[in-house]
Amino acid sequence: MADTKAILKVGDKEVELPIFEGSAGHPVIDVRSLGGAGYFTFDPGFMATGSCESQITFIDGDKGVLLHRGYSIEDLARDADYLEVCYMLLHGEAPTTEQYAEFKNTITRHTLVHDQVNNFFRGFRRDAHPMAMLCGTVGALSSFYHDDLDISEADQRLRSAYRLVAKMPTLVAMCYKYNIGQPFVYPRNDLSYAANFLNMMFSVPAEKYQISDAVERAMDRIFTLHADHEQNASTSTVRLAGSSGANPYACIAAGVASLWGPAHGGANEACLNMLEEIGSVDRIPEFIERAKDKNDPFRLMGFGHRVYKNYDPRATVMRESCHEVLAELKVNDPLLDVAMELERIALNDPYFKEKKLFPNVDFYSGIILKAIGIPTNMFTCIFALARTVGWISHWHEMLSQPGQKIGRPRQLYTGHTQRPFSKINK
Ligand code: SDX
Fold it and tell me: Is this entry keyworded Transmembrane helix (predicted)?
């Protein structure tokens, strides 16, 4: 039921539009009746458009607030692990000890992929970008489950969700191993989610891989900090794909594809490449000037955000982790010096302050991932691995909602009006 109403005067008409209040954030004006009055709204890039009702994640861009099911990202990064966050995103509440144990056991026992998946990789070039391989292999999972999947059943939706959360680390590690020509490493059920991923990435049959506690903790925290983020581009892609009833594996492949863009999840790879291109602190001013030059397409990767206009709380947590990991691993990475100085200069530059450009989640994650030994071209795969639970939680929530409809935006048409076609002599 609407809380209040807006009256839109347009032409000789007055249209009453219901206004709904959520539990936090901006109220929304329900414009669904506008079509009947002969109008569409127009909001390219959805700068001011709510696409759905959701209870999963709340962001306050001005205050730098990020909540998952009401829990702050700072608390979760400090006191929860990634599987606890996965459980609450999927089920709505933080797990009890017993629920956590059962969930962890279920995920652990779904980490293997069908052995036929190995053959999909054989079709890729060895130097294929890992995100290209991830897009292909995640979508190909549809071929193993499409026939026995009824997405109208909540328990079958959750089973797909568990399979995806469990199998993404295996697929991502396979992309890396295929790139470097090493044999795929099978999952190990005696390891934590993060440790299992690191083992599949870095162990080789010839010797035992020693997992550092600091790296395991950092990896798990990176997963947590990337788990979900409201209706971002890739999550909205998954929702739109899922609204047609498409197979969840195909929907997640669509999310992987959307995340790949450098304006979105591809920014961590682009950010590290940018830091390497800058190379030293004395070259920072040159790049700051380029970022401000309207005629130069260059942007400071890892800065700015559609929603956060003060700071990205994840960047703050990531920054702390960055220092912890580099200190524990005794890594003295000059890129960190460049990153810290770039952050200091940008935060004090009038242009960046006026445009509210602050470091986002991708700014520090690349430095940690590099310190862990993950190659730059794998960064967005790590982001996709972590975000899969967010994507599939939104997919599950959307299909749980009564009256769910296929997404079908309209447009402002500015092309030719109808005109005669002249047949040519062929
Ligand atoms: C993620 O949506 C999410 O939640 C995404 C994400 C998630 O968890 O899912 O948080 C993950 O995608 C983080 C963002 C990673 N992307 C980058 O770091 C790439 C660099 N950043 C930009 O491309 C940009 O800031 C965006 C795309 C992130 C946000 O763009 P907006 O808010 O749509 O702003 P805009 O592109 O309209 O820019 C506004 C102004 C412009 O100047 P004017 O035209 O007004 O003069 O700010 C400028 C831009 O030129 N600007 C930048 C800049 N970002 C914006 N100038 C220099 N460097 C930048 N990084």
Answer: no
On whether both 21 and 165 belong to a single domain, the answer is no
217 shares its domain with 173 = yes
In a domain, 62, yes or no: no
Whether 351 maps to a domain, the answer reads: yes
* 279 in the same domain as 133: no
Check if 267 has its Cβ closer than 6 Å to any atom of ligand 1.
yes
Which range of residues forms the domain containing residue 327? 267-371
284 and 248 both lie in a single domain: no
Q: How far apart are CA 94 and CA 425, in angstroms?
A: 70
Do the domain assignments include residue 102? Answer: yes
Confidence band of 127 (pLDDT split at 50, 70, 90): very high
In a domain, 424, yes or no: no
Residue identifier of the C-alpha nearest atom 48 of ligand 1: 355
Among 20-29, 191-200, 297-306, the minimum mean pLDDT is found in 297-306
**CA dist., res. 278 & res. 272, Å (int):** 10
Distance in angstroms (rounded) separating the CA atoms of residues 102 and 144 = 25
- Who's near 321: CB < 8 A, 6+ residues apart? 218, 221, 222, 364, 368
Atom number in ligand 1 closest to CA 230: 4
Q: What CATH number is given to the structural domain containing 344?
A: 1.10.230.10
Question: Are 94 and 232 found together in one domain?
Answer: yes
pTM value surpassing 0.90: yes
114 counts as catalytic: no
pLDDT confidence of 336, banded at 50, 70, 90? confident
Ligand 1 mean position, distance from CA 290 (Å): 15
Tell me what percent of the chain is helix, strand and coil, each rounded to the nearest 5.
55, 5, 40
342, two tokens:
């770039």
Cross-strand pairs, 71: 68
Tokens of 227: 């788990």
Residue 245 zone, left/alpha/beta (φ > 0; ψ -120 to 50; rest): left
Task: Verify that 237 and 299 share a domain, yes or no.
Answer: no
Ligand 1 contact, 303 CB (< 6 A) = yes
* CA of 340 relative to ligand 1 center, distance in Å: 20
How much distance in Å is there from the Cα of 306 to the middle of ligand 1?
6
Measured over the CA atoms of residue 150, residue 155, residue 161 and residue 162, the dihedral's sign is: negative
